[in-house]
Every structure is written in structure tokens, then in C-alpha cells.
Write a structure and sequence with these properties.
- The protein has 124 residues and is mainly alpha-helical.
- The chain is built from three helices and no strands.
- It has one domain.
- Helix 1 packs antiparallel against helix 2 and helix 2 packs antiparallel against helix 3.
- The N and C termini lie far apart (63 Å).
- InterPro entries: SdpI/YhfL.
- Pfam families: SdpI.
């Protein structure tokens, strides 16, 4: 049963690693490639913002997944088999990760529109 908590803890751990060792440019050291979302490649400022905001999203996603997994473990019915719980946790972990990348992409794109609006205001 404890193995079900491995994925959420791994997501939190990766978020903490990326928070401690953010990448200042695309590429990477060893297996650290950063949060390579399309909007992050627009400029160095976008890349740095994605690397700064990405770990927060990962840690929050891991915590949500951890809580949902704990709830599933404690409130499951006898009719739910371990295999069913494994599939259920794998599915909602995958969905949470997809949602986290969508949120990150949205935030980095929003940064682009914020920069453009500031540049238009500073043209004078």
C-alpha cells in the first residue's frame, strides 16, 4: 500500500530539486533539463520564469496527489482491489501532471502578455 505514495513523493522531490537547482538556460546538467514548455523558449526571461514557477507547481501537484492517495487508502472499500487502486492513482497522477503543465504554460504565456503591455506603456 505504501508504494502508492511513491509517485506523489517523487513529484514533490523533483519539485524540490528543481527549486534548489534551477537552470538559467536550456540544456542541462546530467538529467536536469528544466521545464521545457513551448513558451519558455520565447526569451531568457520566460525561461527563468518557467524555472522559477515550475517547481512550485510540481510541489503543489505532488501535495494534492499525496492527499488524494492518502484519502483513497484510508477511505477505500473492501471491494476495491489493490490493482484498481494502483490504476486509479496512476490515472489521477497523470491527470494532475498534465494539468500542472497546462497551468505552467498558461502562466508563462501570461508573462509574455504582461511584458508586451508594459513595453507598450513604456514607449513614451
Amino acid at each position: 500500500m505504501i508504494i502508492l505514495l511513491f509517485r506523489p513523493l517523487l513529484i514533490i522531490f523533483l519539485g524540490l530539486i528543481f527549486k534548489v537547482m534551477p537552470l538559467d538556460k536550456p540544456g542541462g546538467k546530467f538529467l536536469m533539463t528544466g521545464f521545457q514548455i513551448p513558451s519558455a523558449y520565447k526569451s531568457k526571461q520566460h525561461w527563468i520564469y518557467a524555472q522559477k514557477f515550475g517547481p512550485k507547481v510540481f510541489i503543489i501537484t505532488g501535495l494534492i496527489s499525496f492527499v488524494l492517495t492518502i484519502l483513497l487508502l484510508f477511505f477505500r472499500r473492501k471491494a476495491i482491489s489493490y490493482d484498481t487502486m494502483e490504476y486509479a492513482t496512476a490515472i489521477f497522477n497523470a491527470l494532475l501532471m498534465i494539468i500542472s503543465f497546462i497551468v505552467l504554460e498558461y502562466k508563462v504565456r501570461k508573462l509574455k502578455s504582461d511584458i508586451n503591455s508594459k513595453e507598450k506603456n513604456n514607449v513614451f
